[in-house]
Amino acid sequence: MKRELAKQYEPGEVEGRIYHRWLDGGYFHAPCDPDKKPYTIVIPPPNITGQLHMGHALDETLQDILIRWKRMCGYDTLWLPGTDHASIATEAKIVAAMREEGLTKEDLGREKFLERAWDWKKTYGGRIVEQLKSLGSSCDWDRERFTLDEGCSRAVREVFVNFYNEGLIYRGNRMVNWCPCCNTSISDAEVEYSEKESNFWHLLYTVKETGEKLELATTRPETMLGDTAVAINGDDPRYAHLHGCHCILPLLNKEIPIVCDEHADMTKGTGVVKITPAHDPNDFEVGLRHHLPIVRTFTYDGHLTGKAEKEAADALLASGRAAENEPEVLDCGKYAGMTTMEARKAILADLEAGGYLKYTEPLKHDVGTCYRCHTDIEPMVSKQWFVRMEPLAKPAMECVEKGEIKFVPERFTKNYMNWMKNTRDWCISRQLWWGHRIPAWYCADCGAVIVEKEDPTVCPKCGGTHLEQDPDTLDTWFSSALWPFSTLGWPDETEDLAHFYPTDTLVTGYDIIGFWVSRMIFSGLAHTGKAPFNTVLIHGLVRDAKGRKMSKSLGNGIDPLEIIDKYGADALRFALATGNSPGNAMRFSDEKIEASRNFANKLWNANRFILMNLTDDEPAPHIPANLAIEDKWIISRYNDLVHDVSNSLENFELGIAVQNLYDFIWDVFCDWYIELAKTRLNGEDAAAKETVRAVLVYVMSNTLKLLHPFMPFITEEIWQALPHEGETIMLSPWPKFDEELTFRAEENAMERIMAAVKAVRNRRSEMNVPPSKKAKLFIETKYRDDFEAGRQFMFRLAYASDVEIGEGFPSDGTVSVITESARIYIPLNELVDIEAEKARLTKELEKAQSDLAFVDKKLNNPGFVEKAPEAVVNGQREMREKCLAKIAMLEESLGKL
RNA sequence: GGAGGCAUAGCUCAGUUGGCUAGAGCACCUGCUUGACGUGCAGGGGGUCAUAGGUUCGAGUCCUAUUGUCUCCACCA
Q1: A319 contacts A280 by C-beta, under 8 angstroms
Q2: Is A846 helix (H, G, I), strand (E, B) or coil?
Q3: What is the number of other CB atoms lying within 10 angstroms of the CB of residue A681?
Q4: Kind and range of the H or E run holding A174
């Protein structure tokens, strides 16, 4: 039982050993026991390409705290882990690696490419999982999932087909955000805006009918070849005479109509706008309203279109199978094949030469970029698959309005609602290979579109066998949206699904409320009829010590693995939980992690002390008979701690729970109780020794349980070394607040003794009396019993050589120390300066009198006495009594001098 | 343009439904080989809680405005 512990805590040696013991014990596995209440969290699946960063570390720490706490509370607790295939991110990395070898996707072909991708997943997907383990995450690894595994893929297919049949998924030509670097469409949510320097180019288009020059400005002159109209506002008096007229498009000498549209804002610029339906989201809408031709002039990889592209498009249009809004393609002639930037230069040069460029105005504006590669986004009309959002968003908003899902902190509800309200149809197809392939087939014979759960071989319309599957894959977030139920076996009605779904708490950063949280909510409601979780706990981002976002480009990222290596996973977790309040950003600094490491070490040493005092056959934790006053005090304080920590956890106030634990362990237990305990431990009374050992073990082992969710490794290691019952602290029952363990009278008595100790120390320190110089203490008090009980502590804690409790002590050659409950004379003869004593006591008296005045002001206010809660008023009355007592003693002492 | 956060000690931040005269860590100053710990112990200095109003018996906490700062969303011919 008894074990020597090292002088300093060495996390490296402990953590791996303990984690394996937990794994071997199967403690993380949720049994799916129908008799127990479930508590479920699904992990936000990290990307397989990812490396553990501080954001993950925070996210996982918060989840593990909740999970370990609920598990100890007796829930059938499931923390379901897994990873995300991260289509764009992964594909981009593999393509980049292939480029090193001089290979392209096309060189390999789809099948070989996917083989590579799966190899990649095997290598790196495992890495992030191992990193999660090093944090101490108590995930049920038996249930680990991957968004592209068989089950998740089946769920994706089910959802796609159902939505398609319900008309909630459709395919069409729409304006999408195109990334010419990733070569794929991306959703609105995936566009990031950043400010860039550019220009307004003021162009002149000639009006055919009047010959006048119409001035308009553009930031994107390279799109002008695709202009199919010029818009003015119908109410604009400046251009009333132009209704029904036409412009001659420069360079192409093409006639295009002047249309009246509300999009043209009279107050901006000249009030004239060029309309390029194929390459601008607003212009696309204008084009639809006025039935303008849609003329595409860019290729999907960011070049200007030429003869080949035009011929292909013409053929499609001629075939009669083109979808609605199928764009025409322009052969851009001399500009064909140029990149958009090259084309901008060439076209501007030609416009200037032709006298069509009036002037250039410098401008800073926000440009949309791809959130993965930060290439400028090209708005393009393109044929894609979309999810119709309006019918899905409605119930998703209602469910949050009705409180079925609660955001913590609440203010993020607004964020969510805002996103849901403004969202447009979700573009879900991606021109990528790594992902869930769209389950749609096109019949080459009749052009039918077939969307089915099983791969079709024959066209159901014409019986033809020339079927071709859509080459595109789905947005990564399409499968993540199903994560809370696809991972539990949906669409099958599994036991896991019945028991663990809906899940309970979702923990994530505010940055993916739109990407992920909202999509899980509408998906859960649409497919399972239930909200996928009841609480969304939002945390902020982890920033560096200067408050900057940690990022690769800044190179200021702190690697959590290095921190674990140096300080231990417990210290990292504790640092991340400390001072963390929901939704707020937190900075990570060396001081913080060092403070946490020091705390772990403090805890470790407190237990070294306990262990070195225990006997070889120390009994299991229990509350012994014959408790001393200080035992009742610490047990009562501990009991309050149980209440406070439990309460804070219930309210997701993890930072407050951590603070409570820190203060109790360090200030209350170590700095006071252990010191108080030494008196008996070093004494000769065997029975008293037995009692104090039992109290030390009882309070410590239970406090370890409260701390366990935050610092799982060290608490397990110490708990095992102490007398204990059960295999692991992980599965020991969470302490309960017990009315029987509240001893307020003893708490008050101890407070009086401790106040006296502090006052003596303070006085001695002020007078520069070293601890080695002991002095006798004369104590006058009306709490005689309390001080009799506490007299023994005066020797150790207040440097007393002797203690006398009584009355009428001499004031000559002594200093008097006055607390609310006692006057203590310390004979320090040669050190005493009567004048200084007078001055000090006078100052204290003034302070006490002003304190009294402060209290009286409140108590003399009828409004306060009538309206404030009784407890608050009584508190003030007690305070008044204490002030009066102190004043009386101070006055008496001054009188004696 | 819309929405939201933050503003508290030299620094980084807590402060739970308004209720003892505002706390912690770090830094700073003074003591200490106190038989668990110097990653420690004891003591100390340091804040008119951004500004101005308001509600209330009572405001760091709630409301309004202002200033500074950060973030998100939208728009940008």
Answers
A1: no
A2: helix
A3: 17
A4: strand A169-179
**Nucleotide nearest A796 (Cα, C1'):** B34
Tens of pLDDT, residues A491-512 = 999 999 999 999 999 999 888 8
Cβ atoms < 10 Å from Cβ of A406: 14
Annotate A225-236 with b (16+ C-beta within 10 A) or e (fewer).
bbbbbbbbbeeb
Q: What is the pLDDT of residue A1?
A: 36
Nearest protein residue to the C1' atom of B33, measured from CA: A772
pLDDT score recorded for residue A2? 43
Q: How far is the CA of A858 from the C1' of B56 (A)?
A: 14
DSSP run (H or E) holding A18 = helix A11-25
Q: Tell me the C-alpha distance between A205 and A322, whole Å.
A: 33
Share of chain A above pLDDT 70, in %: 98
How many Å apart are CA A775 and CA A793, to the nearest integer?
14
Nucleotide nearest A268, from its CA to each C1'? B77
Which chain B positions have some atom within 7 A of a protein CB? 3-6, 12-16, 19-21, 24-26, 30-44, 56-58, 72-77
CB A158 within 8 A of CB A479: no
Parallel, antiparallel or unpaired: strands A38-42 and A76-80 = parallel
Residues of chain A with pLDDT below 70 are 1-5, 545-556
Of all nucleotides in the shown strands, which has a C1' nearest the CA of A657? B16
- Looking at residue A401, its pLDDT comes to 87
How large is the ipTM? 0.94
Query: What's chain A's Rg over C-alpha atoms?
Result: 37
Q: At what angle do helices A784-797 and A744-766 cross, to 10 degrees?
A: 50
> Contact A508/A516 with Cβ under 8 angstroms?
yes
User: Are residues A276 and A224 in contact, defined by beta-carbon separation less than 8 angstroms?
Assistant: yes
**Model confidence, pTM:** 0.92
Compute the distance between CA of residue A635 and CA of residue A696 in angstroms, rounded to an integer. 10
| Orientation angle between helical segments A560-567 and A54-72, nearest 10 degrees | 60
Q: Which residue has the tokens 């769209």?
A: A438
- Checking DSSP bridges between strand A535-539 and strand A505-509, what pairing results, if any? parallel
**SS3 of residue A376 by DSSP:** strand
DSSP A552-602: TTTT-PPPHHHHHHHH-HHHHHHHHHTT--TT--EE--HHHHHHHHHHHHH
Nucleotide nearest to A613 (CA to C1'): B36
Name the 3-class secondary structure at A355.
coil
Angstrom distance, A703 CA to B25 C1': 22
- Output the pLDDT for position A502: 96
Nearby residues of A369 by Cβ (< 8 Å), 6 or more positions away: A191, A192, A193, A194, A375, A376, A377
Separation in Å: B72 C1' and A175 CA: 24
Which residues on neighbouring strands pair with residue A296, listed in sequence order? A329
Give the distance, in angstroms, between residue A721 CA and nucleotide B10 C1': 43
Measuring from the CA of residue A871 to each C1', which nucleotide is nearest? Answer: B19
In angstroms, the CA A693 to CA A475 distance is 61
Name the closest nucleotide to A852, judged by C1' and CA: B21
Phi, psi of A261 (to 5 degrees): -150, 145
Give the residue carrying structure tokens 């005092």: A613
pLDDT value of residue A587? 76
Q: What is the pLDDT of residue A545?
A: 67
Distance A508 CA to B5 C1' (A): 17
What residues have CB less than 8 Å from A839, skipping those under 6 apart?
none
Tokens 């029987």, residue located: A740
CA of A536 to C1' of B4 (A): 18
Question: Stated in angstroms, how far is A64 CA from B16 C1'?
Answer: 22
Extract the runs of DSSP E, i.e. beta strands, from A302-356. 328-329
Distance measured from the CA of protein residue A705 to the C1' of nucleotide B52, in angstroms: 50
